[in-house]
Automatic annotation (TrEMBL):
<keyword id="KW-0521">NADP</keyword>
<dbReference type="Pfam" id="PF00881">
    <property type="entry name" value="Nitroreductase"/>
</dbReference>
<keyword id="KW-0560">Oxidoreductase</keyword>
<dbReference type="InterPro" id="IPR052530">
    <property type="entry name" value="NAD(P)H_nitroreductase"/>
</dbReference>
<dbReference type="InterPro" id="IPR029479">
    <property type="entry name" value="Nitroreductase"/>
</dbReference>
<dbReference type="InterPro" id="IPR000415">
    <property type="entry name" value="Nitroreductase-like"/>
</dbReference>
<protein>
    <submittedName>
        <fullName>Nitroreductase family protein</fullName>
    </submittedName>
</protein>
<comment type="similarity">
    <text>Belongs to the nitroreductase family.</text>
</comment>
<dbReference type="InterPro" id="IPR026021">
    <property type="entry name" value="YdjA-like"/>
</dbReference>
<feature type="domain" description="Nitroreductase">
    <location>
        <begin position="58"/>
        <end position="140"/>
    </location>
</feature>
<keyword id="KW-0520">NAD</keyword>
<keyword id="KW-0288">FMN</keyword>
<keyword id="KW-0285">Flavoprotein</keyword>
Length: 161
């Protein structure tokens, strides 16, 4: 699959098969994530592997769509407000690299934003000075939804003189 096919076909998965994803695969995708652009090589991302006990305590409304693997991806705050902002952007690029690398090998992801809630930060032991970019389920898709219609990029472009 070429990169454009990968980008256009990737979906947020809402139903996973129970088949386990090998840790070596996940590590490979996370390594690919580290190739994301990041200002001044801050490499601000941290990854928490969520075990069954923590997953139960998080009590996600869909149990991460039954994904066999769950990760939390964090972004470390910078020493300034702008550096913190840049770190969040870099971590989002990290996430996209990981998602696309997994998708290229037939593994989908489910992105939940519930990780930054105070209760969930406490459950996961997230220290001050970090933002939780997302909690992600990883697994082989049971079903893949059709793409939702997108606004044409032409409607989103501004041409400056």
């Amino acid at each position: 699959m070429n990169i454009l096919e990968n980008i256009y076909s990737r979906r947020n998965i809402k139903k996973f098969k129970p088949d386990m994803v090998e840790p070596e695969q996940i590590n490979k995708w996370l390594e690919a994530g580290t190739m994301a652009p990041n200002h001044k090589m801050t490499q601000p991302w941290e990854v928490y592997m969520i075990g069954s006990e923590t997953r139960t305590k998080l009590n996600h409304k869909t149990n991460f769509c039954q994904a066999p693997v769950v990760l939390a991806i964090l972004s470390k705050h910078g020493s300034t407000e702008i550096e913190t902002y840049e770190n969040v952007l870099a971590t989002a690029c990290f996430v996209q690299n990981v998602n696309l690398a997994a998708w290229a090998e037939g593994v989908g992801t489910f992105w939940s934003s519930m990780g930054n809630a105070a209760k969930n930060r406490e459950i996961m032991g997230i220290p001050d000075g970090y933002d939780v970019i997302g909690v992600f389920g990883f697994g082989y898709p049971e079903e893949i939804s059709q793409p939702k219609e997108r606004t044409s990029i032409q409607e989103k472009m501004k041409y400056l003189p």
